[in-house]
Specification:
This protein is α/β, with parallel strands linked by helices. It contains four helices and three strands, in the order E-H-H-E-H-E-H. The longest helix is centred in the middle third of the chain and has 17 residues. The chain is globular.
């Protein structure tokens, strides 16, 4: 699985859409009362997960994102799969560059191609 831009609900920037229009809030009403983004993403452990965030992204607070990663990392490590959780910061705003796309393809080749 590859995701772009993850943070904690409390840290989604002022420039972003309101929380009521966030996909997970709309698809599963009431879920945000019990789980936040890193909790939901952690349900995928120990499967591989790639997360990219932009340092210049005004929509996702860097500290909130780092906090989310700190919630998630122990989950993968508890499954002896710490190397399956890959997080990376890019010097970009909220976008998906060719270099990022190339890294995603490498990640997919590593984790999805049959050995």
């Amino acid at each position: 699985m590859a995701m772009l831009c993850l943070s904690q609900t409390r840290c989604i920037g002022e420039n972003g859409a309101g929380l009521e229009s966030q996909a997970f809030s709309m698809l599963l009403p009431g879920l945000k009362q019990y789980m936040d983004y890193p909790d939901i993403a952690s349900l995928t452990a120990p499967r591989p997960l790639l997360l990219f965030n932009g340092v210049q992204d005004p929509l996702f607070d860097r500290q909130g994102t780092e906090d989310a990663y700190q919630v998630m990392r122990p989950v993968w490590e508890s499954q002896q799969a710490g190397s399956h959780l890959v997080t990376r910061w890019w010097e970009v705003p909220h976008l998906f560059t060719r270099d990022m796309q190339a890294d995603v393809l490498i990640f997919f080749d590593k984790h999805l191609k049959k050995q």
